[in-house]
Design brief:
alpha/beta, FAD/NAD(P)-binding domain, about 325 residues, 7 helices, 2 domains, 7-stranded mixed sheet
Length: about 325
């Protein structure tokens, strides 16, 4: 039973670069956006220490501070930013319904989804403890900090192969840990890895422990066939076993691929349901960068504004 029913013109589900950018554009266009931040206000950047590749921050900035800046800018133009997790949606009619924390019902003329995606982790205590201190899930974001150093990449698919190849151009040596005796990556990516001089692949190896007290100092790996352990000296540990988009609540409503990334009409943020728009990492399995997420957040707000004008609600 709903405690409250409220109607809004533009509802933004999730925060982070996509959500906050959508909010800035929507608020400036007098769409009176309401944002529910979700479980992780600010998204993945709140667990990122240094961001050096976002334009406008010449000296770099840490992720949480950057997201506070984004939020302040969205609020400055009148975005109503709220804590709360969307637990259920109903996109049956032209007015869309959502429920916050299983109790508050909100209806909306337009909805912008920016729920992001979460990196998959190995589940080690040491990996969690050193996250942001040498442990990363994004080579493009953090590879620069390991220039000329030795790093380890875990994974066997295209993502791992891409990360290792990218890091090989920056780092002295890249060691790949592949749990089985072969890659899952496409042939072209495997060939690229095997033909890169400073990438060493250890097949049948998995991570037992990330070593180091306050920062990564090495990795303890174990041979899955023999049980033998090997210590690999490294200052960076990159987990590349995939991402999971935070889109489960939209499963029966929106078109998505087999992993859960939302499908949009190319060149737009339009989903298969009119008035519902997708932005950021929830719909992007290719780039997954803060700057691209912000760009699609802008697109979603502009698409939502056009839609509201079309239906006479703006």
């Amino acid at each position: 039973m709903s405690d409250t029913i409220e109607h809004v013109k533009c509802l933004i589900i999730g925060s982070g670069p996509a959500g906050y950018t959508a909010a800035i554009y929507a608020a400036r266009a007098e769409m009176k956006p309401v944002m529910y931040q979700g479980l992780q206000p600010g998204g993945q950047l709140t667990i990122t220490n240094d961001v050096e590749n976002y334009p406008g921050y010449p000296d770099g900035i840490n992720g949480p501070s950057m997201m506070i800046d984004f939020q302040k800018q969205a609020e400055r133009f009148g975005t109503d930013v709220r804590f709360g997790l969307i637990t259920k949606v109903d996109f049956t009619g032209p007015v869309h319904k959502i429920w916050v924390d299983d109790k508050i019902e909100v209806t909306a003329d337009s909805i912008i989804i920016s729920t992001g995606a979460a990196a998959k982790w190995l589940g080690l205590e040491s990996e969690e403890r050193l996250n942001g201190f040498g442990v990363s899930a994004c080579a493009v974001c953090d590879g620069f900090f390991y220039k000329g150093q030795d790093v380890v990449v875990v994974g066997a698919g295209d993502t791992a192969a891409e990360e290792a190849t990218y890091l090989s151009k920056l780092c002295r040596k890249v060691t790949m840990l592949v749990r089985k005796d072969e890659f899952r990556a496409s042939k072209i990516m495997v060939d690229r890895v095997l033909n890169t001089e400073n990438i060493e692949v250890l097949f049948n190896h998995e991570t037992k422990e990330v070593l180091g007290e306050n920062a990564v100092e090495g990795v303890l790996a174990v041979n899955t066939k023999t049980g033998d352990e090997v210590k690999i000296e490294s200052t960076g540990f990159f987990v590349a076993i995939g991402h999971k988009p935070n889109t489960d609540i939209f499963k029966t409503w929106l078109d998505m691929d087999n992993v859960g990334y939302l499908k949009v009409t190319p060149g737009t943020s339009n989903t298969n349901i009119r008035g519902v728009f997708a932005s950021g990492d929830a719909a992007d399995k290719v780039y997954r960068q803060a700057v691209t997420a912000a760009g699609t957040g802008c697109m979603a707000a502009l698409d939502a504004e056009r839609y509201l004008s079309e239906i006479g609600k703006h």
